[in-house]
Structure prediction request, 222 residues.
Amino acid sequence: MYHFSYFKEKEKQVIFDFMEDHPFAFLTGSTLSGKQVATKIPILIEERNGDLFLQGHIMRNTDHHKCFVENPNALVVFTGPSAYVSATWYTNSQNGSTYNYMSVHTSGQMKFMSPEELIQFMRKFTLKFEKGNTESATIYDNLPDSYLSKLMPAIVGFEIKVDKMDNVFKLSQNRDEKSYLTIISKLEEQGGESALIAQEMKKRKAELFPPGAEWDNSKFDS
Prediction:
């Protein structure tokens, strides 16, 4: 992970909002012998008494389930849109091109839920992703018992108390204002994920380039 201060998001709420907006995260770990596992799953995020907890479920008896039984240390990575940034868009194009992106890394120890805790989790989980629609046929309480009797034994619920969190919001903060505006314009032209990155850059423009302030490139690496 990049450890440059100018690529770090410092506002806690911005980081939490990003995680909530991109809940389909990479869950990764390794066995005690070093075999790595990874799966991508939706995550439910809760803050309790100042601590952050991640909840989810995985299929029972898979490689990742067996891995976390053996070694509970987990890394969960939340990622958003990304976009190629050509150095030809800089005022000084004699630079390497790059990618702009946003990513939050969270880590902690996984604890598996009891059957009763799994039921309560699935109630919250399905209702959240159905946007609170209690009439939805797919929320836990509206699913038939015949289906749940097959589903629930096949999955395991887990909770991770986040012990460490880091982030990279790499959005061309180390470029001068002219380059910054050109990058935004070029990304908007491309649409898709590139346009989403441009939107994020626009949010930061006023803070990066306050009126009357002189640009100081010396505080940045290349």
